[in-house]
């Protein structure tokens, strides 16, 4: 590959440090050149007739590794004596990002009545979609390279592979069919995509690579891995005065596709949360270590921010002797302050945070909790109640915002609606569904706008030869950005349809109205259906001379701002004092995802996110051996995903009173909501239960062992 000068895997988002310097961007090649920096970094590729042969041949590969010292912890990597991963990154620092104003924060801290401090670890997670990643490459006789790829971002992968192989983008077709789930980590570029594409191109033979689950553990990007110190300044009445957050983020051995943006541009923008904190400063340092690269995993920066704020809010309430709901209600941004500009940049267009929290506490029966706690105590169980409020920057991302912060790609979405001559509809989108039900919800958007029955609408995603433009699915963007593109394309179809209908009915287009699939002359019973208009659109003899043939429209939509989803989640737990096991016995959520297109799908999305949030809170922990960098949690025996039996019944409500004011649907994203609110709500509940024993902190994840140890040490005190 080096001889063919195959290009490096450049990240698609780079960050500037607070001093204006660009981040360190060490080259990353699909196959390591001389130095292996993390377990799982490819060193050789075997090509064989079948997988068994390839495995046998791989056994014959002898690699003369000379072990070098390694570092896996981001704070340890900052030490001057730590091994250096890249010459271009002194101190293993990739960037030192800063947002906010230190001067106003220092001033507020100096005059504060109380300062609350917390040190938090946000555990490293493994994405575990139901199917591992896969790549198939095929080169046609005419030289076209087709890549079938388990990716969420077909157009991005086509672009990077074309740049690396120096092929025109049009010479590559990227097909991403049903990929078996993705959770964000399949939305990034991986070495195998480059290797398989290059080898098939070289050999002119079709090649297939499918990861085993073990290979997934060793080759998929991982998520989170923050170490954070946070301090909140308050006045006597519990009003938040200022927030200072210092985060050390573990980027792994290389900067992955969006790996630098998650703990900087995305995470830091969320640290105002739902609160009216007047002064905020956040410093986030991205560090290289000898671990797999980290990047987006469901929530991507938002669960980390929510966890910091909601742990602080609970601690502040405790230290000031205030009720946890009361301290939040005193600090929530009121609905009449919308649009609200946070001191760190983002402007929330709408939201009624106090209403959402009040409703949550009502459905969760917060008032009756004391009785339930007493009843549990009679059964020798520690019962706790916890909750968390969040905002989510869904609809990633306004391109202007992203490019100003270093993105090398735009984040628009494109949608084409083609009304076929029989009136049926084919819609082509740059988004990608891997469990989110786009074929249903996008068809609903078209059906409601064009009056075409759902059964006559086909949604096509995930094929760069069919869908000319696109960005992909991540950051809960498909409804807010892709859905808006469809809505705009539907408006264009109606506009053109009106002109054709007007021609047929010999009136002016201005006199035409459209509803339920029928064009009518206003105030008369003269009408023509969309189906009839579509037929005419493809029959030149009956067609207006000034119009182009066909009934197909494309809209490209780039949001002007994020769609600010928000919500509040509550959880009730019981802890078994003998085993330390946390049982989640109740879970409630109230989420504002703007206008809801499909409540069933949204509820499913929120439940799935909560399951993953529960995994982060109680089970999942990716562990490396600090002596040699080996991944210790490299199978499901050692890495504990949540199970069905861990899941409580979830009572969820959607608050549709605050439609997004910035997009034509009024919709805000929902795909990550659960994974954002759940970890903080669950941990707050568990710590509430443990407060009876004087325990006020246990780091994520709250495994039974950790809780058991905390209980035993509290008994010794
Ligand atoms: N929706 C709706 N009304 C709204 C908001 C959303 O009806 N107001 C619908 C949408 O039309 C879409 C679904 O809900 O069908 C999710 O929409 P959205 O919130 O825009 O999220 P995306 O479709 O962009 O999905 C991305 C998001 C992310 S970032 C991860 S990670 C994730 C997730 O969705 N990974 C998933 N959900 C997943 N679900 C499954 N089964 N598998 C994954 O890998």
Q: Would you mind describing this structure in some detail?
A:
The chain is of the alpha+beta class and 717 residues long. Helix content is 30%, strand content 21%. The strands form 7 sheets. A 5-stranded mixed sheet has the order 1-11-10-9-2, sandwiched between helices. α13 runs parallel beside α14 (478-505). The chain starts with 50 loop residues before the first helix and ends with a helix. The structure holds pterin cytosine dinucleotide. Residues 129, 181-184, 298, 434-438, 441, 473-479, 483, 593-598, 601-602, 605, 608, 667-672 line the site of pterin cytosine dinucleotide. Residues 129, 181-184, 298, 434-438, 441, 473-479, 483, 593-598, 601-602, 605, 608, 667-672 line the site of pterin cytosine dinucleotide (MCN).
Mean pLDDT: 97
Count of individual beta strands: 24
Bound molecules: pterin cytosine dinucleotide
Structural class: alpha+beta
Strand order of the largest sheet: 1-11-10-9-2
Computed over alpha carbons, the radius of gyration is: 27 Å
Low-confidence stretches: none
Instruction: Please give the largest β-sheet.
Output: 5 strands, mixed
Q: What characteristic shape results from the CA principal axes?
A: globular
Beta-strand residue fraction: 15-25%
- Give the distance, in angstroms, between the N- and C-terminal Cα atoms: 62 Å
